[in-house]
Amino acid sequence: MKVSDYIIDFLVQKNIDKVFSYIGKNAHLCDSIDKHDAIENVFTLHEQAAGFSAEAYARVTGRTGVASTTSGPGATNLVTAIGSCFFDSVPTIFITGQVNTYECKNSSECEYNAPVRQIGFQEADIVSIVKPITKYAMLVDNIHNLRYELEKAYFLSQEGRKGPVLIDLPLNLTYRDFNPENEKSFYDSKIYKDACKEKDISDDIIETAIELITNSIRPVILIGGGARMSDAESELMILLNKTNIPIVYSLMGKDLIKTDYKYNLGFIGSYGNRYSNLTLANADLLIVLGSRLDARQTGRQMTTFAREAKIIHVDLDKHEPGRRIKVDLLVHADVKNFVNKINAKEFNIEIEPWLHKVLDYKKRYSSLYTIEKKEKIPNKIIAYISEHLKADDIICVDVGIHQMWAAQSLEVTGEQRALFSGGMGAMGFALPAAIGATLGTEKRAIVIVGDGGFQINIQELEIIKRRQLPIKIFIMNNVLLGMVSLMQRKFLDGNLIGTEDDYSVPNFKNIGNAYGIKSHEASHLQDIYDLIKKSLKNNNSELIDIQLDESKDLVEPVIAAGRPMEDMCPFLDREELKKQMVITPHK
Fold it and tell me: 203-364 belongs to which homologous superfamily?
């Protein structure tokens, strides 16, 4: 059979039904997809968008996402998306076309690592470029290695801490005849067999965890992206229904436990909800499930983070737990497996006073109002969008100040998902992510994006129109790159170069209409609400430019420099903060 046909048959056997592509030296792959009944090409307008679409496809389906491009600039345009999948542990395969083996300086037909910059047109050593941000990357320059390398790449994308892999395939191999039955299989290798050996959690670790839980009176569970990638929602809900332990979450853990869990205490960290940070700060036990506890979560004052709490840290990556924050119990394990082991034990906890306290925090410090009880208009708009969503909508949020508004005030219920770009924090993520999410599930996707991020992959409006995709786009437009402007206001004497000065936005309504997408704009709050409500009653593609007041719409609260996470700016009255603290206040 033809090599490209073999590769596509392999993907279909793995239940992959979409490949996000930009055509070039991968033309034979695209042709094989087109001729196969069980899989389809999705042609984006930029390779980065193909990568983000594949990422979202993987996140909403659990399958490995696939993106394919040409060599050189096509491959390098994938780098940001590959990094996003690596940092957020998303299983993806990137298949890049490469120049012919006889003009590829790293192939066996030339001289490996030939001391020249380039031989073939659009040749680039993409494997070396992406090795630091992939689990595995390989140039397949010998057809007899193809079966082994493809099987290995797919396995590694899903094994352990999931992530991206890359196969670089020279053009002249893609149309060769190939019989996989005559070639070596990765599944017969020692690497595969060793990786498949069951890794169990010792009874001693589980008993220690149970002891810490039963001895606590102010426990909190912190949910991170690892818990989401473990698909541990059902197992966690069993534990939560049994114990009523309050939960907080990082950005990547936001949609695992839904808002209607009574003791969901929200988003923590530098731009977290005040009530969330107060909850975590006053805990006497913190159970960290699949979160790496980076500086955005802990604040810069690491010694004050959960300072009177015992910490259980569960993570599949043995290098993560205990790296920044001293912990009392390290658990190198899959989150779902750990929670299942805990659920199998009989135990009781008495935490009623603590539950009353955290619910009071939530009532007292709503994300929709300042401490002076003034409305936070962007947060109110996000909350209003939440109120009118369908139970299975997929919300794709871009990167910028609006991401923090969404993290604070977006309510995720029912079967909804919320997709964020976490570790990479890539502007331009949300629009192509919505394409991958809706094509992977046939559900409606909602884009929440800033004026800056929207312009980075604005060209993908064309595919939304072309395929009549059920995608709603809400642009939180304050004519400002808000997150960077916060830093400029604080540390650069308000010199807003590149964020307001020498920065502008086009007429998004006109651009949307030019692409054939029904588009609107509004600046008055009631008009904004009316457009949101009307738009969300149907599944038609639509764009709404929400024009905000750039002089007011920043983000608060925020952890102040040098302060512990419970002492957020704008600051509470010192006596009020002292009253709300269960542990000893930080001096």
Answer: TPP-binding domain (3.40.50.1220)
